[in-house]
Each structure stands twice: as structure tokens, then as C-alpha cells.
């Protein structure tokens, strides 16, 4: 396994596998995010929750009846896929940190699970493409270092770093 020189990555390619090394703090944050998102996914969809509305959108915004019918037909399977992705992350990520080895297929499932976490949390935090996360986090910590929003923003950043590192290792693409 060759680690790129001069940069830190959570994942690198090792032959047919993607190997991640997680510090205990990263593993703890990520496992807690997965656990919390699984709890939310286990509940009926609250259409007023911006995170759940993002994960289970109204596909036909001009026809609530058509959206409801599509949800009736697909939501159970979609929810099951999201919960399975969360479970795979929990099954493969050591609670105390350490090494994770993933096939390309498992990496794809991890990416979908991480994406769901970020969509859920980002929608609730009102993060969008124009949000400067470093600035937002700094401002929140300055305002109140113990605020739940600061912790949530930091968790969002951690999930993004893991997602980015895994995608980079999977595709070999660097920007």
C-alpha cells in the first residue's frame, strides 16, 4: 500500500481493496452519526423535518397524490437500503478506531451511507453549496464553544472528509 506523500488521507487503495485508518476520535464521531441517522431512518418520515424531506423528497411537487403513491411503492425499499448502508459502516468500522478494508462494492455502499448522513445533517443545519464551513464553524465556536450546532457542524465536516477520502481512493481522482 502506498500512501501519497505530503498529504493525509483516511483511505488509500491497496490492490483490490480500499484501506482506511481511523483515529479513535474519527471512528467515534462517525459511528455516532451513523447510529443517530439509523434511529431517524427507523421512524416514520416526518415531512416537516428538512433532513428527512431531503432523503425522501416529494418527487412530484405539483402532485402530492402522485408523490404519496410513489412513496408508498418505494419508501420501504429505499429506507431498507439506507439502513443497510448504515449497518455496513457500523459492521466494518472498529469502535475504537483502526483499520477498515473495503471492496469497491462495499466502498460504494459506504459512500451512499455517508452521503445520506451529510444530506440529513446538512439539510437540518441549512448548509448549502455557498456555505463556508470553516467560517461557519469558527463563528459558532466563537459565539458558544459548547453549542450543539458547533458539534453538528464539526461532525458534518468529519463525515465530508471521510467521504472525500474514500471517493478519492476509489476513483483515483485528485483535485
TrEMBL record:
UniProt xrefs under InterPro entries: AosR (IPR018561)
* Record protein name field: DUF2017 domain-containing protein
| Source organism (scientific name) | Actinocatenispora thailandica
UniProt lineage:
Bacteria, Bacillati, Actinomycetota, Actinomycetes, Micromonosporales
Amino acid at each position: 500500500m502506498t500512501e501519497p506523500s505530503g498529504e493525509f488521507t483516511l483511505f488509500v487503495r491497496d490492490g483490490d481493496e480500499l484501506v482506511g485508518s481511523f483515529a479513535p476520535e474519527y471512528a467515534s464521531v462517525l459511528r455516532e452519526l451513523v447510529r443517530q441517522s439509523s434511529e431517524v431512518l427507523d421512524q416514520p418520515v416526518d415531512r416537516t423535518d428538512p433532513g428527512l424531506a431531503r432523503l425522501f423528497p416529494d418527487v412530484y411537487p405539483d402532485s402530492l397524490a402522485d408523490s404519496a403513491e410513489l412513496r408508498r411503492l418505494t419508501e420501504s425499499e429505499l429506507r431498507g437500503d439506507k439502513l443497510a448502508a448504515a449497518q455496513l459502516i457500523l459492521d466494518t468500522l472498529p469502535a475504537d478506531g483502526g483499520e477498515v478494508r473495503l471492496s469497491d462494492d462495499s466502498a460504494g455502499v459506504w459512500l451512499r451511507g455517508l452521503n445520506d448522513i451529510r444530506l440529513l445533517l446538512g439539510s437540518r443545519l441549512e448548509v448549502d453549496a455557498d456555505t463556508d464551513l470553516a467560517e461557519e464553524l469558527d463563528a459558532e465556536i466563537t459565539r458558544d464553544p459548547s453549542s450543539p450546532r458547533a458539534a453538528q457542524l464539526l461532525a458534518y465536516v468529519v463525515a465530508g472528509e471521510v467521504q472525500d477520502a474514500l471517493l478519492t481512493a476509489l476513483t483515483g481522482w485528485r483535485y
